[in-house]
Amino acid sequence: MTATKTVKQAKQPIDFIGYFLRVLIILTLVCLFVPALNPTHMSELMNEGDSFFTSGISYDGIAGGFQRAISRGYIEKSVLVYTYIGSLISLIGMVAMLAGCAMTIGEIRFKRLGAKIVLGGSVVSMAGLVFVKLQQPGFTNAANPERIKPLEPIGAIIFIVLVGICLLLSLLYLLKLPKATKEDGWVMEGKFRLFLMMAPFIVLVFLFSYLPLWGWRYAFFDYKPGQTLTMDNFVGFKWFTYLFENAATRADITRVMTNTLAMSGIGLAMSWLPLAFAIFLTEIKCGPVRRAVQTITTIPNFISWVLVYTVAFALFSSDGFVNQFLLSTGLATESQDFLIGNDGIWIKMYLWGTWKGLGWGAIIYIAGISGIDQALYEAATIDGAGRFQKIWHITIPGLMPTFFVQFILSISNILSNGMDQYLVFRNATNTSGIQVLDLYVYMLGLGSSNQIPLSTVVGMAKSIISVILLFSANKASKAIRGSGIV
Amino acid sequence: MAKTKEKHGFRLTSEDVVFNIINYTIFILFALICLFPFYYLFINTISDNSLVGAGKIQLVPKGIHFNNYVGLTRINGLGTSFIVSIARTVIGTVLMIGASAMVGYLVTKQEMWGRKFWYRFLVITMYFNAGLIPWYMNMSMLGLTNNFLAYIIPGIISPYNIILVKTYIESIPAELEESASIDGAGYFRIFRCIIFPLCKPILATIAIFGAVGHWNSFTDSLILMSGKPELYTLQHRLYTYMNEATNLAAMIQQGGSDISNLATQTSMNMRPIKFTVAMATVIPILLVYPFMSKYFEKGIMLGAVKG
């Protein structure tokens, strides 16, 4: 303990260069993921959605759009290969820079080594960048510039400047840092060691949970797949108003919202069912039967929706079990495909959801029941209470808090029915009745119509409303029972 | 508990008898409804294919054979899908477990630089998502379309599981860690030698949930792998087969009788094969389920006390 304290006091002068260097390196690494700053983007044939990172890790990212150009001899293949090699080298250098950057938060020995690694990394990275930049004449002087459509990548300059500053700064840092003495060990404060262990996971969270928010910008552009986002196709809130001004989309939205709210509404109205299931299941006093029923009824929860659909197909299609049975017993004269058409689709979807989820949904209440004090039941029995009186006056009040939390959560999820179930059950004849918001977003954006901006707008609205619903539900829960749910 | 049982044993009124009969009937019926579809699929895969085609197999299998299962190996692409599904389930689950344990441990360390901030940074992500299209654009920007890593990397971090592990670690006596750190063990060593072994019960639970999730997921395959059928998961394969069947059915309904006969024929001949593929995707789950069900139940309870 005392040792770390003396180390702290020794480190009086604030490490400005170190701070600045770390910020700069992180900034450089963030730029790696910005497609607009991709230094390899030297021709319009290149996919503008690709960032420098993508170019560096996959040759296809660079050469994907050039297959025809190469085969027709418009451009030398070597130019593309060299560009890729340059990017890869630059990327490796940046990985080293990151590693060095992490080391500089340690004490003096770590700092010196970190600075050296940053220096080496930035030299390598710079070499790669310059090599990429040197390939530019290959694009501008290509055999057929009209087809290649050369571009001037602004990213190259920005990266060269950033990496250049890192290089100079790390050199300066190395010169300024005092030499490590004999007693200086390889020390890093615990808080920083912990942070470094955490850092890779933070990066993952950022990449897959926060970075997608950047995609909301598509809502403000007139974007078609394969285009670039430039100020020319910036349209402001056009798609937001389009959603309500265009008669067709307005009708779609109304229909989709009706489906979504209807299906969630049925779910909410029937949310007592798992509770009832649990209560009556515990009334089965024969242990093996009760456990067997509980185990069997939870199985469907663990199979995928595709499989549920296969089951539905096997049982209810025109040559499925139900029809075979009805025909062979003479109850029907003509087979009928129950999976086709819109009739009662909301109820059907609810029933499939129940088949899959009822047993599972009940487990939480079964556990709740076993947590209720048995003395209450015994006292009630002595007082002459019957089975239903005990259920009504002891079991149900005991389960109410759990039920309440579940209910509030399902209210906040009212717009999120998920997509899997409706996607697998959808066909040409029932789309209008089955399309819920999640499925609509999918079909609008990734289906045949490819309306990326419009679909982003709908998804955005859904996300925002869901968050508001969740926090309102949490507030309501706090007001009613004094504790929140999130 | 024994006492109440005894009471019920002794005083069965006629009302109780009626109640029990109705109650048992309803539950056993529901259990049968949950089980029968699997049985029906199964008998249709092992019965004589021509009888299946004629719709003759309803309750008992006839002409038992296993050629359909042998025939699965001959379906193009099914083998690779099987490997893809197994690979993503195993690798994805192992990495998820490792990350959940590690992060769950790290966020319990009060002295970490910016612990509160990073913990919130992580937990908040449970309550919002950017939406499908921005997610897709992001994945394609990161080069994760038509790429096996797309199945693995995004699933490594699961905030919900991390919270479960964190709660569990907080219940482990702090003295264990303290004594190890006095003996000179570093954070990673403490994690590896003390925390990780002690967390095994909770890790087993989340492992099972993670594995089932990986095995069952097909929308990521559907959305991200459109250009590479060799990376389709087994569920996605099944989905494409079933989709063909549905389209055929819809076509039959709209089209004339000529197509109808032909199409019905093909669709009927395909039935046993499709069901066999379905059985192949469900059998792993049905096999492990009886052994794992106690973990499943433990899992939902952990979720319940989280609040």
Helical fraction of chain A: 55-70%
Major sheet of chain B, described briefly? Answer: none
Instruction: Tell me the radius of gyration of chain B.
Output: 26 Å
CATH topology of the largest domain in chain A: MetI-like fold
Number of helical elements of chain B: 15
List low-pLDDT spans of chain B.
Answer: 1-9
Give your account of this protein's structure.
The complex is a heterodimer of chains A (about 475) and B (about 300). Chain A has about 475 residues and is mainly alpha-helical. Chain A has two domains: about 1-190, no CATH class; about 240-480, MetI-like (MetI-like fold, Orthogonal Bundle). Chain A has 24 helices and no strands. Chain A has helices at about 1-10, 15-30, 50-55, 60-65, 65-70, 75-105, 110-135, 135-140, 145-150, 155-175, 190-210, 240-245, 245-270, 275-280, 285-300, 305-315, 320-330, 345-370, 375-380, 385-410, 420-425, 430-435, 435-445, 450-480. In chain A, α15 packs across α18. Residues about 1-10 of chain A have low confidence and may be disordered. With about 300 residues, chain B is an all-alpha fold. Chain B has two domains: about 15-65, no CATH class; about 70-235 and about 275-305, MetI-like fold (Orthogonal Bundle). Chain B has helices at about 1-10, 15-45, 50-55, 65-70, 80-105, 115-125, 130-140, 150, 160-170, 175-180, 185-200, 200-215, 220-225, 235-255, 255-305. The longest helix of chain B has about 50 residues, at about 255-305. Chain B is globular and about 75 Å long.
Short account of what is shown:
With 486 residues, chain A is mainly α. Chain A has helices spanning 2-10, 16-31, 52-57, 59-63, 67-71, 77-103, 108-134, 136-140, 145-148, 154-176, 190-210, 238-245, 247-269, 273-282, 287-298, 305-316, 321-329, 345-370, 374-382, 387-412, 420-425, 431-434, 437-446, 452-481.
